[in-house]
Amino acid sequence: MRDMTAGHDVKTGAMVVLPDAEAIAQHMAKWLTEQALAKKGGPFVIALSGGSTPRRLYQILASGAYRDRFPWANTQFFFGDERFVPASDPASNYNMVETEMLAHVPVPAANVHPMPTSGDPAQAAAEYQAELEAVYGGTVLEPGRPLFDVVMLGLGDNGHTASLFPRQPVLDERRLWVSTCVPDDAPHTRITLTYPAIHSSRHVVFMLAGAGKREAFAKVRAGDPAEPASHITTEGELIWLMDKAAAGQ
Ligand code: 6PG
Question: Which Gene Ontology BP annotations are present (predicted)?
Fold first, then answer.
């Protein structure tokens, strides 16, 4: 299934197990800020995850010390996936990130790249890939020159991540960086980064919290090929940032 040489994958990635969801959010805010501040010679490029788990992280980054310290003007904010709904829709990942973080921080509008969610989904995916190519400075992903500094991911209880859902053709996509997906077990048409785009990264960080993630994590950590998240790889480092409940401890 996978035809990419992994720097790290879900089985070899480091596990960082913390007491609870708040500790995960605080740890990620600190780590992400350090990574962004350390980036030299170009923008810090991140793909944000949606869902509920990262909400607290975004609130922390928008508050106090982090708001003043994070290098907003040198960061390019992309999204790992999006529901094909208007930005005003509560189901929109962009809506959540804008509400919890982007509306409260001094990030230049040109540095924020919402996934298009109108018109034809395949056309929207192609437009988003063009935005990524413009920031990357090329149309072919070069090993050793990753597209993203950080890709944030969550994990669904059906083993999906980003919008790479079970039984969907997007799981076989190895050429496009961005594609579409119509899950058969979740609402909304989706736009999503593909495996090759996620692989082109210095860090992939999965954020998991709660006992509800325990079963899916165990399957993915074991490399169960039926779980879409099992096929995530990165050129760089893969980190499982989770609480004890999700880790089964
Ligand atoms: C989405 C997310 C998705 C999410 C997982 C986990 O658009 O729904 O990108 O991949 O990360 O479903 O979601 P929770 O964090 O809500 O458990």
Answer: carbohydrate metabolic process; pentose-phosphate shunt
Ligand 1, atom 11: closest residue by C-alpha: 154
Which tens digits make up the pLDDT trace of 75-99? Answer: 999 999 999 999 999 999 999 999 9
Q: Single out the residue of 139, 136, 98 nearest to residue 115, CA to CA.
A: 98
Residue with the smallest CA separation from ligand 1 atom 7 is 50
Measured in Å, residue 40 CA sits from the centre of ligand 1 at: 31
CATH number for the domain formed by residue range(s) 14-243: 3.40.50.1360
Cα separation, 9 vs 238, whole angstroms: 6
Can you give the residue ranges of every domain in the chain? Answer: 14-243
Residue range 101-111: mean pLDDT, rounded: 98
Instruction: For residue 38, report the phi and psi dihedrals to the nearest 5 degrees.
Output: -80, -15
Ligand 1 mean position, distance from CA 41 (Å) = 32
